[in-house]
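Support request from a user on the community tier.

User writes: "When I paste my structure tokens into the form, the page sometimes reloads and wipes my input. The last time it worked, I copied everything first. Here is what I submitted, just in case something in the input itself triggers the reload:"
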């Protein structure tokens, strides 16, 4: 059976770890998991895109799931404060990647999918968008606000199980100058997106140079008009 996710600690871009002092040592997925965090609003992890209230307010991001160079399934639109993205848990609510069907899925992809487990929790908070690693394997994160300004070297942050990272900083994003002619070798440059791979890293420090070489990854397309 799937082990419960570990309690969260925070990981800053400078690798400073900050425990969140959760009252529970473990969190059941069927609980309103991260509500013990002082920065999260108590709510159930529901499929916000299907909520009757979904049309009453604007979404803050869309999530695309990729396997190598192939996008699998539809864009998942997020309206609520947080969304859980996981593999295949019988009592889970949110974006279930295990339900996405693709013919001729290779063995490498399937092995990686099996490692997603409880996956991640994406949370829109006052200071930005946080990604909480609820799985038993690392996740790898890249975004414009995690990169060094004016540096063309891709920076990918490894986030271990039980830790989290501010994947996107709204204030810092407003201060960045986004040149239209930037040409990154691993794909189009989007100043309002976050890329997260499960279990496998990419970039200069890894054998996979491009995120499209990763078996399973997410593209978080942020709606910065809704902050």
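"...and here is what came back when it finally went through:"
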């Amino acid at each position: 059976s799937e082990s419960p996710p570990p309690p969260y600690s925070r990981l800053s871009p400078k690798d400073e770890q900050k425990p969140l002092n959760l009252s529970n040592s473990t969190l059941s997925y069927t609980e309103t998991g991260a509500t013990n965090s002082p920065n999260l609003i108590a709510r159930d992890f529901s499929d916000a895109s299907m909520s009757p209230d979904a049309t009453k307010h604007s979404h803050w991001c869309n999530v695309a799931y990729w396997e190598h160079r192939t996008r699998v399934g539809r864009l998942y639109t997020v309206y609520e404060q947080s969304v859980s993205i996981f593999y295949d848990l019988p009592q889970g609510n949110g974006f279930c990647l295990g339900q996405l069907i693709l013919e001729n899925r290779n063995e490498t992809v399937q092995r990686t999918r099996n490692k997603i487990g409880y996956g991640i929790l994406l949370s829109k908070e006052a200071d930005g968008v946080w990604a909480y690693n609820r799985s038993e394997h690392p996740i790898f994160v890249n975004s414009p606000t995690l990169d060094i300004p004016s540096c063309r070297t891709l920076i990918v942050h490894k986030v271990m199980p039980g830790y989290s990272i501010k994947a996107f900083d709204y204030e810092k994003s407003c201060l960045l100058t986004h040149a239209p002619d930037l040409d990154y070798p691993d794909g189009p440059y989007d100043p309002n997106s976050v890329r997260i791979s499960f279990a496998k890293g990419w970039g200069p420090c890894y054998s996979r140079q491009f995120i499209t070489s990763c078996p399973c990854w997410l593209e978080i397309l942020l709606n910065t008009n809704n902050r």
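Agent notes: The reload is a front-end session timeout and is unrelated to the input. The mean pLDDT is 77. The domain at 62-179+189-222 is CATH 2.60.200.10 (Tumour Suppressor Smad4). Escalated to web team.
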